[in-house]
Each structure stands twice: as C-alpha cells, then as structure tokens.
Specification:
Radius of gyration: 31 Å
Strand order of the largest sheet: 1-2-3
Shape: extended
Strand content: 5-15%
Structural class: alpha+beta
Low-confidence stretches: 257-266, 268-272
Number of strands: 7
Number of domains: 2
CATH class of the largest domain: Mainly Alpha
Distance between the termini: 90 Å
Helix content: 40-55%
Mean pLDDT: 77
Order of helices and strands: HEEEHHEEHHHEEHH
C-alpha cells in the first residue's frame, strides 16, 4: 500500500487506514495473486490465463488518483494508474532480482581485462585510495569541459596526505586507467581530457556517501568498548549477538542444561590402602 499508492498505513488511532488486510497461503492448485485496494482504487497482479503475469490498476473514483471526472482528465488518470503499476513492478524488481546492482558492483570491484589484454585490479571501495579517487571524481564532475591528469593529481594528492609533485605520471595514468575500465570516466574523442559518465557520477557519489555516512559511523557504534550511550544500533547488535549465542547453546549437543538439584546416588564405601 505504501509503495504503490504512496499512503501511510495507520493501524491504530483515530485515523486508521480503512480496508481489509489479509494473506492467503499458496497451496497446490491455488493461483497466486496480489490485490491492493485503497478506497475505490485497486491494483492487482495475477496470471493471465495461467501464463503471463499481468499488472494493472483500476479505479471507479478518479478523485482517488487526484483527478477530476471530466473526459479531459483521461490522460492524467491513465498516467496515475500506470505510475502505480510501475511502482509495484519496480519494488518487486529491486527487492527480488537486483541484477543491475549486482552487475554494477561486480564491474567496480572485480578485476577487469582491458582492450590491450592488461589485467586491472578491481576498486575495493573501502580502500582509502579508492575513496580519495572517487571523491576527486565527484569534484571533477563540476568541470563541464572535462579534466586532465593534472587536475586529478591536484585533487587526489591532498586527500592522500601527499604533495602533487610527489605523485608520478605513472601513478596518475594507472588511476585513470582503472576509472576508465570500470566505466566511471570516459575519454573525450580527439583530446587528452576525460569526463565522468552518468553512471560513473552516481556510483562515485553513492560509494563515498555510503562509506563516510553509513559504514564508518555504524562500525564506530557497534565496535569498541565505549560507544555513544543509548545507541539503538549498539543495543540491536548486542541483542542479536545474545540471541545467536543462545541459539548456538541450545543446538550444541555437548552443552547440557544444569539441573536444579543434584542428588548423590548411593555408592559403595571407598577403601583406601596404605602403599607401605
């Protein structure tokens, strides 16, 4: 409901979302389907004649889609219905078959063979040099005429704690080749300048923000002896570790639960002998 219609579902309180929410268990002979209703608008997915998956949105009240009832609003209604169906299909595609994301990650982090049969190592995004290189690409995207190796040198060296003169031309050429083989940048024809691709800029922005704003702060909270007090992530991590430890203890055959009362069984008296 929230994904397709963009409405927040409230199950409690005075302004609860009207409607019926139910789930059907798929068994043998049951045709799977999905129906989402909001007021008098309904979106659904089902198998057309048991072969092709059909996704459609129908409405008997145009005002549910933010349009009027005049025939002049027919194009706006069709657009709103198509948008709802597209949201559902996109959510299913991203959640269950993220093939495009897996391919982009593999292209960036896996070794690449160039056109000259040269093996170029992948760009491991937690690597400080890779992070500095991607951050430099984000800044170079502001140059409409492209950038040269000299421009990359002056932006990359300070992030690595070096002077631009300390970096050789071979090192900059190596970095440019890695970015080009990973399709982050491309060379402008008949020139010595490069520019970022549309997908390269998105990748550089995502990986730099992910590392600096999500991974590093998150690891700082769940590691170490003294994280910030009241950290929800730290509490969740400790609760998860405790649950895993309890589950492992219950599944281990060598660990027996201690008995509440230990009783000694009657035994024969022990006779000690003097070896002398």
């Amino acid at each position: 409901m929230n994904i397709v219609f963009g409405r927040t579902i409230r199950q409690r309180g005075r302004f609860r979302t009207p409607g019926t929410f139910r789930t059907q268990v798929i068994t043998t002979g049951t045709c799977p389907y999905l129906y989402l209703s909001c007021k008098k608008t309904q979106g659904g997915q089902y198998l057309k004649e048991g072969r092709a998956l059909r996704t459609e949105t129908t409405s008997s009240q145009p005002r549910d889609l933010g349009t009027g009832k005049e025939l002049t609003n027919l194009a706006a209604m069709a657009k709103a219905g198509y948008t709802a169906s597209r949201r559902l299909a996109d959510a299913e595609c991203i959640s269950h078959d993220p093939a495009a994301g897996a391919a982009a990650l593999e292209m960036l982090t896996s070794p690449v063979s160039s056109t000259t049969c040269t093996r170029v190592p992948g760009m491991r995004f937690p690597d400080p040099r890779v992070q500095a290189l991607l951050a430099a690409c984000c800044a170079l995207a502001l140059r409409p005429a492209g950038f040269t190796s000299r421009d990359l040198r002056h932006l990359l060296a300070p992030q690595l704690g070096k002077d631009p003169g300390d970096m050789s031309g071979g090192q900059i050429s190596y970095d440019l080749r890695r970015l080009r083989d990973c399709q982050i940048i491309e060379r402008i024809p008949h020139s010595r300048t490069c520019q970022l691709t549309a997908g390269g800029l998105s990748t550089a922005l995502f990986f730099t923000r992910l590392t600096r704003r999500v991974i590093i702060p998150g690891l700082a909270e769940i590691t170490g002896a003294g994280p910030p007090p009241g950290s929800p992530l730290r509490h969740a991590d400790r609760a998860y570790q405790a649950a895993i430890a309890d589950l492992a203890g219950q599944a281990s055959p060598g660990i027996q639960p201690p008995s509440a009362t230990k009783r000694r069984s009657p035994q024969a008296p022990v006779v000690t002998r003097n070896p002398s």
